[in-house]
Design goal:
Layout (H helix, E strand, L loop, with lengths): L16 H4 L5 H10 L3 E6 L4 E7 L6 E7 L1 H7 L8 H17 L6 E2 L11 H11 L14 H4 L2 H13 L1 H7 L1 H5 L7 H14 L5
Parallel strand pairs: 1-4
Antiparallel strand pairs: 1-2, 2-3
């Protein structure tokens, strides 16, 4: 009869379940708790980008509020995608204004395991919040190019695709066209919605 030994030695410590599942970085979690500063949390689903401001506590984060990019369409007339870089920036802009109105002056972006350090979506959202007045430290390497935030890369891709393959263009941008928007107009619409957010009194 074969003896069954321990797979990784007698001193092997089984990681916490959330770490094994790639859901919690406990070293980062500890550092965030020590800072005592609000967390700027960005998530993306299959349809929307959401930005939350939360207070880190031992028993779990206490969410103060959450802003979803769907408000861009329902309130500001945004007809482009709701989970891309421009939408992330604008959602962050709304969240930043709301945080300032609540007396929150600074926050720390919490990537956790959800994003890589090269991801543009969370940093675009953080840049939007910073432009609203919220102090969020962001390293120079993480800053997103302004042309990308304005959606110029999407507009340029749409222009090229329209010239090369009109049927593929209609297929790729069917949602935009259904809403009556030419994807080449994203930068223009971005500026219009940004000005509405900054000029409005209600941050949603």
């Amino acid at each position: 009869m074969l003896a069954v030994g321990r797979a990784k030695g007698p001193n092997y410590i089984i990681p916490f379940r959330r770490k094994r599942e790639g859901r919690t970085d406990y070293r980062l979690r500890y550092a965030l708790l020590k800072s005592g500063k609000p967390l700027f949390i960005v998530r993306r689903s299959n349809r929307y980008v959401t930005v939350s401001i939360a207070i880190p506590e031992v028993g779990g984060d206490r969410t103060l509020f959450t802003v979803s990019s769907k408000v861009l369409a329902s309130k500001y007339g945004w007809k482009a995608g709701l989970k891309n870089t421009p939408a992330a920036y604008l959602t962050g802009l709304i969240a930043g204004r709301k945080a300032i109105e609540m007396g929150i002056k600074e926050a720390i972006i919490n990537l956790g395991y959800a994003w890589s350090k090269k991801a543009s979506i969370p940093f675009a959202a953080a840049m939007g919040a910073r432009d609203a007045g919220l102090n969020i430290p962001i390293g120079e390497k993480a800053l997103v190019n302004e042309s990308r935030i304005r959606g110029e890369h999407i507009a340029e891709y749409a222009r090229i695709l329209k010239e090369r393959d009109i049927e593929e263009f209609k297929k790729r941008f069917s949602d935009y066209l259904r809403r009556g928007m030419d994807p080449e107009d994203i930068p223009k619409m971005f500026e219009e919605v940004k000005n509405m957010i900054l000029g409005g009194g209600d941050s949603g």
